[in-house]
Amino acid sequence: MTRTDLVVLLPNNQKVTSSTHKGQEFVYVLEGTLTLVHNDEEYNLESGDSFHMDSMTPHTWFNHTNEAVKLLYVYSISSNVIH
């Protein structure tokens, strides 16, 4: 099952520990600067930037700027329901 969310990260979020989980993630930055930590490498993504990854790779993302970050978050989630 795939979900899509519009996410707003308020200014000055704290960096959290990287995590892993089953699934895939796609993020498209609409406004602001998002910091992505992927495999212990840190990247700053600006408006118009995006990334896709296997969620089993250690990762986290956050906003350490003084402005809000708005992003589109598309991700797969486990579902035990058979259609």
From TrEMBL:
Membrane-crossing residue ranges in chain numbering: none
Cellular component terms (Gene Ontology): cytosol
Entry keywords, A to Z: DNA-binding
Positions of the Cupin type-2 domain: 7-75
GO molecular function: DNA binding; DNA-binding transcription factor activity
Pfam families recorded: Cupin_2 (PF07883)
Organism superkingdom: Bacteria
InterPro entries: Cupin_2 (IPR013096), RmlC-like_jellyroll (IPR014710), RmlC_Cupin_sf (IPR011051), TransReg_Diox_bact_type (IPR050807)
Record PANTHER family: HTH-TYPE TRANSCRIPTIONAL REGULATOR, TRANSCRIPTIONAL REGULATOR
Listed name of the protein: Cupin domain-containing protein
